[in-house]
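Technical annex B. To support the medicinal chemistry partners, we prepared a structural model of the target in complex with oxalic acid, based solely on the information shown next.
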Amino acid sequence: MLNNNEINSLPDSLILWVDEIKKRTKSDKVYWCDGSDKENKELTDLLTTEGKWIKLNENEYQNCYLYRTPKNDVARVEDRTLICTDNAEEAGPTNRWMKKEKALKMMWKLFNGVMKKRTMYVIPYLMGPENSDFSQVGVEITDSAYVVINMRILTRMGRIAVKEIKNKERYVRALHSTGDLSLENRYICHFPDERLLMSINTEYGGNAVLSKKPHALRIASTIARDEGWLAEHMFLLEVENKKRNKNYYISGALPSASGKTNLAMIKPPANFNDFKARTVGDDISWLFVGKDGELRGINPENGFFGVAYGTGPSSNPNILQSLKKNTVFTNVALNPKNNTPWWEGLSEPPETLYDWTGTEWHPWSKKNAAHKNSRFTTPLKQYPFKSEAYKDPRGVKLSATLFGGRRSSLIPLVYEAKTFEQGILLGAMTRAETTAAQSGSTGVVRSDPMSMLAFCGYNMGDYFKHWFDVAKKVKRPPKVFNVNWFRKDEKGNYIWPGFGENFRVLKWMIDRIDGKVNAVELPIGFIPNIDDLDLKGLVLEKEKLNELFYFDKQGWLKELNEVKIFFKKFGKHIPDELWDEFNKMYKNVNEY
Ligand code: OXD
Ligand code: MN
């Protein structure tokens, strides 16, 4: 625990806030987290002795645990995630809004006495590298030891953050309680004006580990709007080309559970010996325009909160080694024979398992063993294929950025925007099929601009405008691409093999960045000359490949008309720049 000197060195406003929360929640005990190994051991032991989670086989999974959440608390709940401001227009038509005063009143009532007989943990945390102008600090109060342990993996927390809080002019306040886990009173409220978060009656990571989507995206996006930078739902990847003796940094936005972590951890195919791929971040990037006019990015996080289900030797071989120590698994299955975790995609299923709810399971059982949104929380620093740049306080210079989503038809495997401004349009018009990361039905096509639909803390029309404003400050903009790994043939099979093979597309991007190859112009942007895609070692018929790039004019007109309906929802908030880009593209497609 932090000592008194350390606590007293924190801003008075923070000490007063902690006092206020203690009074309101009637917590028994305040515990100030220092982030040390000793503290972590005490907390992990506590959860084990209390039977709140299962310690896994120490020989195979050192310091790893399995946690099960109730069936009604397994994913982000978008319909209970609120942006709370003075007027609805600030939140815009895509967010759920509640008037600030009303939300505060409701939340204080729910928090009243909620931590009676519980310990209240105070977690100072740092988002981003140490000593960086781009980093931010926050303090989360929670009554969940599970949340503390997750925060320790995903952020730089404790002592290290105390030091930084003193040097920063602002800290985000985040309050969480597991409450009674009732769905009808579950709320994740964001107060952008106050830089305040309140979340109750949930323990699922995306709702309760408040540094993540609530701070690093929803609140950070409003701070970014006010300060002229971008908080994005993007991975950040370093690709080294040994032959050209160069590193490239590529950021990319893909909707939740659409292979973003896999792409961030991509292993180039066997014959791509000249290349190395390393991860800077897998989920969130903060992008800044430097004084030199370059667009630079940092990963504000310190670990991965990835989807376990489907993660295996073919989808993401790189992460598997990392999951053998210091990892928390949530809602995966358990192999009782050797006390190890299991999920679909990891290996052939064992004869007997306990599924994610703790019920006996066999390969012939009709249900999934692991939940589709089961997760691993694991530290970045032990990941063998990380880029050391994740610690660089200056961030990395972006060479390219990409957008994309899960679409079974129409959208080509890859295409390149003609300009950065057109790239903003590509991001804004992203539509994708929904996945298990959000509750509700899966596989429905919905607009998900920049994969930020669920994460933009303010009116998305204003957010598009903000992108154009930032673009004006960028001197040498990165190239912008759009990708779609999920196009299907008429039999409903995926055409492109995906996973590691996606590196072939990244290589084409690098050749475009370096001006090594030309491209084919379509009204929507540039697609590759098929011969420029390096397909060595891949069995894919030419016909199939052409299908991946087939341009369906009528389909595109329909797509653009649907995008237009979506944009119109924002009324005057959509900037002229976006309509100009849109109209240009519409005209080009129409005349094609
Ligand atoms: C995530 C998500 O957890 O996008 O990263 O849902
Ligand atoms: Mn995400």
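Notes passed to the chemistry partners:
The CA atoms of residues 70 and 91 lie 31 Å apart.
The longest strand covers residues 119-127.
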